[in-house]
Specification:
single chain; mainly beta; four-stranded mixed beta sheet; 1 helix; signal; Lipoprotein
Length: 133
């Protein structure tokens, strides 16, 4: 009988999936000193997700995302923000600037920040990488 109860509980838990309380939030960290401020670019070549190292509050309706990328002379970033009542999901996309496609670029890591607007004040919502569930 216990085996059947355990089996039923396991199936129900798997079927229900996770909720927003099971999501690991990104760490809220102070803005890195000396970080390069990037502006959002929607025209990036070969845009791909890059790791977000943390975030900080930049106002009631803005957050600053912290990451590493290439030099701003050759590389740019953009962000996708998805908001729910409980969470703000963010993805930073990095890629080559169109004007730098045929240019020699040095390959060094640059600590960067990108401020993104929110539709509603952050309040007590959590910030997560990717779309919130």
């Amino acid at each position: 009988m216990r085996l059947i109860v355990l089996l039923v509980c396991s199936v129900l838990a798997a079927a229900c999936g996770s909720n927003s309380h099971d999501i690991d939030p990104l760490p809220e960290t102070p803005a890195p000193q000396g970080a390069t401020e990037f502006g959002a670019r929607t025209d990036l070549v070969d845009a791909h997700p890059i790791e977000i190292q943390g975030w900080s509050r930049a106002g009631d309706n803005r957050i600053a995302l912290h990451f590493e990328t290439g030099t701003p002379e050759c590389f740019g970033v953009d962000a996708v923000v998805t908001e729910t009542a409980d969470a703000v999901g963010v993805t930073v996309l990095g890629g080559t600037l169109p004007e730098a496609q045929d240019k020699m670029c040095i390959m060094i890591a640059v600590t960067g920040t990108l401020e993104v607007p929110l539709q509603q004040p952050l309040g007590e919502r959590i910030v997560t990488a990717g779309e919130p569930h």
